[in-house]
From TrEMBL:
Protein name: RNA-binding protein KhpA
Pfam family, one: KH_KhpA-B
Organism: Rossellomorea marisflavi
Chain segments annotated as coiled-coil in the UniProt record: none
Gene designation per UniProt: khpA
Record family assignment: Belongs to the KhpA RNA-binding protein family.
Length: 77
């Protein structure tokens, strides 16, 4: 799942080396925390959060029913 998120996000940003993902496993599911360079935050979120919503949609669809736990994607500063 990490590779999928990186494949989607890296072409969007100006600083692809600053993209990092941390994974936390909790009782509710697995949370992927995406952090990017501060200058690229707007590109990842998009107008009214449209890009972020699209990224989440693709990640959730890829996880589908193959995962026993729910997947969450957070964009952190």
């Amino acid at each position: 799942m990490k590779d999928l998120i990186l494949t989607i996000v890296k072409p969007l940003v100006d600083h692809p080396d600053a993209v990092s993902i941390e994974m936390e496993e909790g009782p509710n599911g697995m949370t992927y925390k995406l952090s990017v360079h501060p200058e690229d935050m707007g590109k990842v979120i998009g107008k009214q959060g449209r890009v972020a919503k699209s990224i989440r949609t693709v990640v959730y669809a890829a996880a589908g029913s193959s995962q026993q736990k729910k997947i969450f994607l957070e964009i952190v500063e």
